[in-house]
Amino acid sequence: MDVPASPQVFLFEDFCFDRYRGDLFRRAADGAFTAVAISSRGLAILRVLIERAGEVVTKDEIITAVWRGMVVDDSNLTVQISALRRALQHGPPNVRCIQTVPGRGYRFAAPVTSAATRTPIAPARKANADWAAPGAPVAAPRLSIVVLPFTNLSNDPDQQYFADGMTDDLTTDLSQITHMFVIARNTALIYRNKPIAAKQIGRELGVRYILEGSVQRLGSRVRVNAQLIEAESDAHIWAERFDGDTSDLFALQNEISTRIAVALNQELTATEAARRTERPDVLDYILRARAAYGKPISRERNVEGIRLLELALALDPHSAEAQCMLAGALAGHVLNGLSEAREADLDRAKRLSEQALAASFRSPMANIAKAHLLRAQRRYSEAISEYETVLAYNRNYVYAYFAMGKCKFYTGSIEETLPLVERAIRLSPRDPELGIWYKQIGHVHLLQSQPDEAVVWLQKARNHTPEHPTIRGDLASAYALNGDTERAAAQLAKARRLSPDDRYSSVARLKKVRNFELLTPQICALSEATYYAGLRKAGLPEA
């Protein structure tokens, strides 16, 4: 394989580590890189050590990052470190990439270089060296950030643990975003309580963005403020305030850090996509596609996103990320009822998904693409399993909560639908998919014979995403069941104009397109008594 110029790829000795794919490669005698057989735990440990190259990483820090809440004996870590050292053995037998620091932990001692910039991530340090302040400036990857220690504004100094917890969670959460380069927490701690200009921090750490914030607790309430700063210009490009109750501090900390990470993902993607270049590379097109999908759903949005991903794949036909995103985009085009070539889109999505999984089977992006495809194929139980895998990789992938709720609905577990969709809305209250999430809540109320409540949610969905045909169709049914046949007829007419096919020509045709016969008997009965009954009242003919 060739080494991709990606900020997710790190070079050291004669090895190449792909953080995004979670794979390790060794340079052979002919100069080509071949995969190194190593366990998933070993790769996870290697990622932790490389991301903090030159620093001492304690055993507890490694176990917390790799085993995630499991009770693990130190001997498990020792076994994995030994196996990792054997896999990395290269050159003189007394030279080790991974050094043991007695009584403290482990240090990755080999020089590590970013494949994107060919600049050092962190210089190798002597075995007894302590961490020193950053030295010469390094080039900043496009999506690069440091989370500065959050400030405790409370009168109680004991509340510092909550502020530190926010810093730790955000550092972890942001590192899970594709292409995001995040400075390690221990490095960021150097800047605690130091009034240093953002531009200087950006130069010293080689990052484009700085996240800073504060935590203030008053009685049973906690307020968290966060600001995103562009280091070079020292400009504030995003700020948000979060309030919560302290009855469950751990849950509150998790929720706030997730909401910040989700918001920053959207903000940084849009900012970086706006940086135009004369000769876009694969990452440019991918970022532009991600920014395109940051807009409310419409046929135009989907077509533009697919076009940009096709351009990325044309530049690099083997890009697993472009394959994953395009597979998901094509499946999403079908799921949103906007595809004019359903079977062709699904066939292409299937091929791309299989290629991506074969090349990057540990990637949550490959799993999300497969999940979207399974859902578009109406294999809902299988899709649920894939979405659960995605969330096990990255709890911040909020769309998976909605998608699981949708799948639960179609498998007959309606009572599990609303909590999942509501969680997605709570974690990403400004999400571009919000209209579809509102629509799902409205549809559940519709089938539960609550047309008044359904109208409220479906109107919110229409206002957020006015160009979506199925939102208009649901609203037509809800209006009709409420006795407002004039508005129902208007919404049905709009649904027909927006739809890429003739599904709204008759009840029979709509049932065929929606594969009515494949739904559970419970959903069929509820749909017949409410949704289709409303559409008939709105003027949709039977055949």
Structure report:
With 543 residues, the protein is α+β, with helices and mostly antiparallel strands. It has 4 domains: 9-122, Arc Repressor Mutant, subunit A, CATH 1.10.10.10; 144-273, Rossmann fold; 276-397, Serine Threonine Protein Phosphatase 5, Tetratricopeptide repeat (Alpha Horseshoe), CATH 1.25.40.10; 408-543, Serine Threonine Protein Phosphatase 5, Tetratricopeptide repeat (Alpha Horseshoe). It has helices spanning 40-51, 59-67, 74-88, 160-175, 185-188, 198-205, 249-273, 282-292, 299-315, 320-335, 342-359, 364-376, 380-393, 399-410, 417-427, 434-447, 451-464, 469-481, 485-498, 507-513, 521-529, 531-538, and strands at 9-12, 15-18, 23-27, 33-35, 56-58, 98-101, 105-108, 112-114, 120-122, 144-147, 151-152, 181-182, 209-218, 221-230, 235-245. The strands form 3 sheets. Strands 4-3-2-1-8-9 form a 6-stranded antiparallel β-sheet, with helices on one face. Strands 10, 11, 12, 13, 14 and 15 form a 6-stranded mixed β-sheet that branches. Strand 2 (15-18) and strand 3 (23-27) form a beta hairpin. The protein is globular, with a radius of gyration of 25 Å. Residues 122-138 have low confidence and may be disordered.
List keywords for this structure.
Rossmann fold, alpha+beta, globular, 4 domains, Arc Repressor Mutant, subunit A, six-stranded antiparallel β-sheet
Q: Percent helix among the residues?
A: 40-55%
Stated plainly, the CATH topology of the largest domain is called Serine Threonine Protein Phosphatase 5, Tetratricopeptide repeat
- Annotation field: number of helices: 22
> What is the total domain count?
4
Strand order in space, largest sheet: 4-3-2-1-8-9
Task: State the major sheet.
Answer: 6 strands, antiparallel
Number of E-type strands: 15
> Which stretches are poorly predicted, pLDDT < 50 over at least 5 residues?
122-138
User: What is the CATH superfamily classification of the largest domain?
Assistant: Tetratricopeptide repeat domain
Q: Decide which structural class fits the backbone.
A: alpha+beta
Strand portion, in percent? Answer: 5-15%
CATH class of the largest domain: Mainly Alpha
Mean pLDDT level: 85
Q: What is the terminal separation in angstroms?
A: 57 Å
Described by the principal axes of the CA atoms, the overall outline is globular
CATH architecture of the largest domain: Alpha Horseshoe
Q: What is Rg?
A: 25 Å
